[in-house]
Write a structure and sequence with these properties.
Arc Repressor Mutant, subunit A, homodimer, mainly alpha, DNA-binding, 10 helices, elongated
Chain lengths: 212, 212
DNA sequence: ACCTGAACACCGTTCAAGT
DNA sequence: ACCTGAACACCGTTCAAGT
């Protein structure tokens, strides 16, 4: 309140940290009201700025959404990384907990989940975003690490961990997608399906597919 | 050319079968140019009618797209049903061929696939569409039938076929989705991943998950 | 019955003008 | 530097008016 900076910050003209506010509010709108509810008019009205102020910080609405996606990946990683790194739990236990946490994230943040793992804002990422796609892969690399541990302990068969991870991720992602998009009319059977899926995966991964 | 009806059909005012033309052209546009390319202005311009002519046959653009989805399900069923019904092939063979055909459909018609199995035009189906959702499930019921055959032959363990089908479908759907949405950077390894997935699924389905 | 053309309310984006 | 407000080019939808 004493420095000129603080006065400047509380002025209505200079918004302070408009870029961060845009990202946070946009993520909240997407998450709670759906992707269609995110219009620049509504977003800027809530923040008390004009529409075109957005273009001081992002070249386009798409670029803003890519920033939201980045924030989304961080949130998911924040949930998954501690589980992966919890060396007190067994591999099988962490495998189960990571799957559950991933599914829970999709169920509680369906719009955000579709944004992260859909196609709409994926192709353009390489062109528009200034960050590397490390974040996109951290979750997958954690899974690969877990599968390597499982291989070492003899819980699953030795095989290309990238291929194993792709298969496992596809299974969970497919389950999450079908669920949140309303194609599995068995939300009440969800626990049964999840437990069954995990057991089929673990059982299937035990054997090396040799023939043909 | 002789009857009044045929003359009427060739007239430019009465379009003949505008509803069917709308659906066919819309599906083609979606399939070849993406969902965003489908605007009523472009669609009606190609068919030589006014924009509002659409509203004589569909209450909204959304309803038109639901019709396109219906046509899409028919096309997929046309590909899968013959494989399922080919009793000359073994169960394992049909399981493999159905998976491949399903994946091929997704890869060759990504936008249409997302339309069929995404969320955007799914929630509203029950309210807007006049047809039953049989078509949506025929593919799933075919899979359930195949799994029941496999159970009878002792190829896989006895279990709730609905749960088994959900798990298998989720795996293939997840693979298809990650692929066409660009999240698996291994399109060249696709054959390896698919073969591995199928073997993990079949191996995993062999054992009954008893414990826990 | 079926279609037209103008109008409406939205959207993202641009840009000269303000401070 | 940062923001404003008006304007632009799109979109789906509506409706009085034509045949």
């Amino acid at each position: 309140m004493n420095t000129p900076e603080s006065i400047k910050k509380t002025s209505s003209y200079h918004h302070g940290n408009l870029k961060e506010s845009l990202l946070t509010t946009a993520l909240e709108m997407v998450d709670k009201e759906g992707i269609d509810a995110l219009t620049l008019r509504e977003l800027t009205m809530r923040l008390g700025t004009s529409r075109s102020a957005v273009y001081r910080h992002f070249p386009s609405k798409e670029a803003l959404i890519l920033g939201v996606i980045e924030k989304g990946y961080e949130r998911l990683d924040l949930l998954l990384t501690p589980i992966f790194q919890d060396k007190h739990s067994s591999v099988a236990e962490r495998f189960d907990r990571m799957g559950r946490e991933y599914l829970d994230f999709a169920i509680h943040h369906p719009t955000l989940y579709r944004l992260l793992f859909g196609d709409k804002y994926h192709r353009e990422r390489e062109e528009l975003c200034d960050y590397k796609d490390e974040n996109q892969a951290t979750g997958l690399y954690a899974l690969i690490g877990l599968l390597l541990e499982a291989q070492e302990q003899g819980i699953i068969a030795q095989a290309n961990p990238m291929v194993q991870a792709a298969m496992v991720w596809a299974s969970i992602h497919g389950l999450a997608s079908l669920l949140i998009d309303g194609h599995l009319l068995m939300r009440e059977n969800m626990e049964e399906i999840y437990v069954y899926s995990q057991s089929v995966l673990l059982n299937g991964l035990k054997r090396i597919p040799k023939d043909e």
